[in-house]
UniProtKB/TrEMBL annotation:
Residues 26-395 form the Luciferase-like domain. It is an enzyme of class 1 (oxidoreductase). It comes from Streptomyces thermocoprophilus. Belongs to the NtaA/SnaA/DszA monooxygenase family. Its EC number is 1.14.-.-. GO terms for molecular function: monooxygenase activity. This is NtaA/DmoA family FMN-dependent monooxygenase.
Amino acid sequence: MTRPQKQIRLAAHFPGVNNTTVWSDPRAGSQIEFSSFVHFARTAERAKFDFLFLAEGLRLREQGGKIYDLDVVGRPDTFTVLAALAAVTDRLGLTGTINSTFNEPYEVARQFATLDHLSGGRSAWNVVTSWDAFTGENFRRGGFLPQEERYSRAKEFLATAHELFDSWKGDEIVADQDSGTFIGRPDAGAFAHHGQHFDIQGRFDVPRSPQGRPVIFQAGDSEEGREFAAAEADAIFSRHGTLEAGQAFYRDVKSRLARHGRRPEDLRILPAATFALADTDAEAEELAREIRRQQVSGATAIRHLEFVWNRDLSAYDPDGPLPDIDPDVESEHLARGRAQVHMYRDPIATAREWRELAEANNWSIRDLVINTGNRQNFVGSPETIAKTIDAYVQADAADGFILVPHITPGGLDGFADKVVPLLQEQGVFRTDYEGTTLRDHLGLNRPA
């Protein structure tokens, strides 16, 4: 029996300033002005995307005591941006990354419940943890948590937030029959949680929101992260963009759901995906090469090499050969913030491998970083990209994709205008929204 075609889920990631964005392109706009967010969100909604996704960094990266060049314009607050976007969109889901290591359940639950009310049921929470003591310096607790404690705290954080979301069990505000005034039932919003990480009790002051709870995203890829997603998440933000890796990840995570009393359709798997779109496949390949060169300036190439060498390499020519000295594995790392510090477990071996690659291909430092860095997931004409995305979804490498354009805010426009109509013609993507909430868009049930 032939399986019906799966419906593709599409979302848009406003990338901010990072190694995906080509901020130097003349078409690039502000990463912080509200008009950029509005343009991006309205394009996604015009294309009937499921949601817009915002990442968040709680501290700017530093290298050699200076703010990293791709972080220089800063990061606006997630909740503020999403609440403002709720007023200028009607159906688009609004997903924010909020950290469970440096926040508190009551505050976060109250903010998401409020956003869900303001947006008519379109909020989603990407639950993340943080290992980074450098980031922790921005918070009064400071420090960091070991990995096992991070996930322990995250699980209890989410469980506590769910208790708060569920503390309003129905129509808790009712009209007094005699006076006609509104009164609250005695147990409305009452909660008490006594656990390892949180010991709180009181009354939650936001009534149950349109979705009951926000859609829960999770982005971890470790064993703990996969199990956490299988037990708790509605969707997982995957980093596995190739067909084979995507299929392996998909099988693994979906196979874990049954032991948590869940069905495969209860969890959506959505890898991030970059793209290079042009009129022909050949033009797209050339565009992809140009994008990669734009993404790696000379200064960026040197900074990337410094992650591995752990040395100040500013005296080196990015268009010259790699350093012949070995990485410094004894000193404190000169890069601080986010995951780059831990990307390379064996710097000496990595440096040796890169020297061999550079010598074999006659690559400069910049050439090496360009050719060993991330490549676009989808490259081609509108027809090629539409066909490839559909093939990945039908082959169970993903349930859809979170698209990350290289230009903000206009980088999504071509995909919306040229690729989405082809997917709609194939019958694998909606032509209009059929519901009002993000759970409707993703085909997820409202929690009881």
